[in-house]
Amino acid sequence: MNLDTLTIRHVLLRTQRYFPRSEIVERVGEGRVCRYRYAQLAEESLRLANALKSLGVREGDRVATLLWNTWPHLVAYLAIPNIGAVIHTLNLRLHPNDLAYIAEHAEDRVLIVEESLLPLYEGFRDRAPFEHVIVVGDASKVPGALSYQELIQQYEPDERCLAEVHWNTPAFLLYTSGTTGRPKGVLYVHAQLALAALALTSTITYYVSKDDSILLSVPMFHVASWALPYAGLIVGAKMVLPGPHPQPADLLNLLSDEQGTFVAGVPTVWHDAANLVERYPGRWTFSPRLRLILGGSAAPEALIRRWESFGVTVIHGWGMSEVLLGLQAHVKLSDFPPERHYELLLKQGMPAPFVEAKILTFDGKEAPWDGQTMGELLVRGAWIADSYYRGESPDSFVDDWLRTGDVGIIDSEGYVKLVDRLKDVIKSGGEWISTIELENALMSHPAIEEAAVIGVPHERWQERPLAVVVLREGKTVTPEELREYLRERFVRWWVPDAFVFVDELPKTSTGKLAKAVLRERFCDWKWEGSE
Ligand code: AMP
């Protein structure tokens, strides 16, 4: 048995040997695209690999990227791990202080950054550890920086630069978004990426195939883009890169122009895109084979229904920075009558093959599969992290299981339904209230665009739910109407005691609700009738 083909080296070899003519499309500006073939990707990766080696990058060194989903980023995904170095994708939505901390913690030796992101780099340049900075674009803007384009021309695509990588050679470093405490590093070895990519091609996950036109909309700086770039490359799929700063309209244009069959992302992005599709009927035509994978936060029923009404197959999945590929909800849909479609799809789902999941109750016992016993979701599997970089935060792991910080239940089918984040769940009078379920119900109301529910301290009940709501344009609704709407769906004590109407909800760097910010904003909230 040779596990050493489970490497990014193997991905590179396949692109060269088996799929040289497969297509890659990159959006380079307003309505403009560049078209490439896999053969060019392999060639440019080898050129970059040679350039990095000649700059002194050795095996095990970290090379950082600060790039959108662009052609050079895909090149870096192949080049860096193939010289035995570690690609470290920096999240361009973070504050410069966080980036300084992360780059220093990772001891990154080289940075590849695109010109449009230089102002961000300026914000932490004096605290960054980089020995070399490579700029995609005009390098003269940074003293001492090298030009990506010049390096690529200067070096040959000589394969002798490739390292003897093994299945357990470190390949990819990313940091958690750090909503609680400092960001923590997750270091993936080659086999973890290879296996997650392979699993993505399975019919019971997302069945990525040669016939797919994949719009790579999940940021490549986030969770290794779910290992999707590697999955697409091993099967020779058409890859579409949305380029810098893609807006929902850009994503829709690419889906329509390139007849995308696979796209993924957080509900927020696809919510905005759905608004456009409804506002401009007929402007975009989608492939009948298009499937939209919603993940990163809970997919609301209203959003699933809207995309289905556009003729798109919607799949709900769950994952996290430490997981790559975790749970999928569509797997057993065909076993159930159509009226149970949404009940199943709203769950986060069952584990991908070779992933195991269990719920640990708050008193430390494994929860039965009864669809009601709540507890923390724990997962383990070949591509799931079993420690953080440099052994930080060991309490996040129990034996080799990852504590996800998500609170859920498991039903008799083995389907996990998340009801909250551990830190978001509300405990009112000793009983748990799921904020996710309340939010989903609120967002199914025709007058509501977005909703967040948070727990606010209460004298009598310790905590009570407060709903913060954004109305759809031109719509109105009263708190009493909303209360009535929720009473039809939930027990009385779950219904929020107050509704606050705002113009916008705060979001994290990955487009999720920033509940910590909301809790902070409403920490001095006075309930009616209290002093
Ligand atoms: P990140 O590591 O930034 O990708 O965040 C991972 C977290 O996002 C998970 O622990 C969940 O809290 C949340 N998440 C991801 N997918 C889902 C989903 N389908 N439903 C609910 N929460 C999700």
Detailed description of the structure:
This protein has 531 residues and is an alpha/beta fold. It contains 15 helices and 26 strands. The strands form 5 sheets. Strands 2-1-11-10-12-13-14-15-16 form a 9-stranded mixed beta sheet, sandwiched between helices. It has a 7-stranded mixed beta sheet with strand order 7-6-5-3-4-8-9, sandwiched between helices. Strands 17, 18, 19, 20 and 21 form a 5-stranded antiparallel beta sheet that branches. α8 (228-235) links the parallel β10 and β11 (238-241). α1 packs parallel to α8 and α9 packs across α10. The protein is globular. The chain starts with 7 loop residues before the first helix and ends in a 10-residue tail after the last helix. The model has no long low-confidence stretch (mean pLDDT 94).
Helicity range of the residues?
A: 25-40%
Strand residues, percent: 25-35%
| Computed structural class | alpha/beta
Distance between the termini: 71 Å
Bound molecules: adenosine monophosphate
Task: Supply Rg.
Answer: 23 Å
Enumerate how many helices there are, as a single number: 15
Mean pLDDT, as a whole number?
Answer: 94
Would you report the number of β strands?
A: 26
